[in-house]
Write a structure and sequence with these properties.
about 270 residues, alpha/beta, ProC C-terminal domain-like fold, 2 domains, elongated, binds NADPH dihydro-nicotinamide-adenine-dinucleotide phosphate, binds (2S)-3,4-dihydro-2H-pyrrole-2-carboxylic acid
Length: about 270
């Protein structure tokens, strides 16, 4: 499969790292980005083809992954439009907020669009991607999009595009919340007298182990939490403090803020012709 990436930044690099040499050869991947350093890094690491701007090379791609910032998408659509005619590739957008209908409108009514929301654990093949296909996407194109994202983790197809903003808020942005929690655990470890290295090792192993345990168990996470929480014990002291400080409601509110920002980006950037 020949795949092009428009934008070779953080998320594109994570996807390319997961794809190259697995789903397709690096030589079948083409990356467009204005930054020479980013292109040189990707070329050296994965043997991908590179270009500083959109050109006719794109016409050979079966799938074009749109991996620029949401604010850059409209300009990219204008540059892409002249190159879509012949091969009619699938456009696989990973941009937060940008609605398929707006993208299609900027592309003169182009219908072969899958909107998706991956996350950075794709870098190690442990990503999860929410996806939704527009009406103009063929079954074969949907299968290609699924194969690309499955090569870097799991996929969840959504019946309604409105659910992409919640997916963005939960799993697209989610790794940042997990890293934030790990940072806090590391800080606590150091403040309690452990070394930074020990704090890191303890926090990471605990996160990974607890997540794997929850995934392997049929029991709800509330029950798994209750099993750690001995009556009158240490966990109870910690959870009581978290409840006093409304940590759970603050996390829920934060995730809702992310979803609202996704909708707001769609409104802001999709407005007008
Ligand atoms: N980071 C993440 O965890 C996730 C990000 N996403 C989505 O992925 C998209 C990219 O995010 P991210 O990788 O973090 O952002 P980055 O800024 O790291 O990457 C975007 C890249 O696109 C380049 N670019 C700008 N204009 C063009 C153009 N006209 N043609 C080609 N390339 C261009 C940028 O260059 P320059 O810096 O010079 O502008 C930059 O290198 C966003 O839409 C985001 O919503 C989705 C899921 C998770
Ligand atoms: O923060 C963002 O907007 C992007 C989308 C999901 C993760 N990063």
């Amino acid at each position: 499969m020949r795949i092009s990436f428009i934008g070779g930044g953080n998320m594109a690099s994570a996807l390319i790292a997961g794809l190259a040499g697995k789903l397709t050869d690096g030589a079948n991947i083409h990356v467009v980005d204005p930054n020479p350093d980013a292109l040189a890094r990707l070329q050296a690491a994965f043997g991908v083809g590179v270009a500083p701007q959109i050109d006719a090379t794109l016409a050979d791609s079966e799938v074009i992954v749109l991996a620029v910032k949401p604010q850059q998408m409209r300009e990219v659509a204008a540059a892409l439009l002249p190159h879509l005619g012949r091969a009619r590739p699938l456009l696989l957008s990973i941009a937060a907020g940008i609605r398929s209908a707006d993208l299609a409108r900027w592309l003169g009514g182009y219908g072969a669009i899958v909107r998706s929301m991956p996350n950075t654990p794709a870098l190690i093949g442990r990503g999860i991607t929410g996806m939704v296909a527009s009406a103009g996407v063929s079954a074969a194109q949907k299968a290609s999009a699924d194969a690309i994202m499955k090569a870097v983790g799991a996929t969840v197809w959504l019946a309604d595009e409105a659910l992409i903003d919640p997916v963005t808020a939960v799993s697209g942005s989610g790794p940042a919340y997990v890293f934030y929690f790990i940072e806090a655990m590391q800080q606590a470890a150091v403040e309690l007298g452990l070394s930074a290295q020990q704090g890191r090792e303890l926090a990471l192993a605990t996160f990974a182990g607890a997540a794997e345990l929850a995934a392997a168990s049929n029991e709800p996470v509330e029950l798994l939490r209750a099993r750690v929480t001995s009556k009158g014990g240490t966990t109870h002291a910690a959870i009581t403090r978290m409840e006093q400080d409304a940590v759970g409601p603050a996390i829920v509110a934060a995730i809702k803020a992310a979803a609202a920002r996704g909708r707001e980006l769609g409104d802001e950037l999709g407005a007008g012709d």
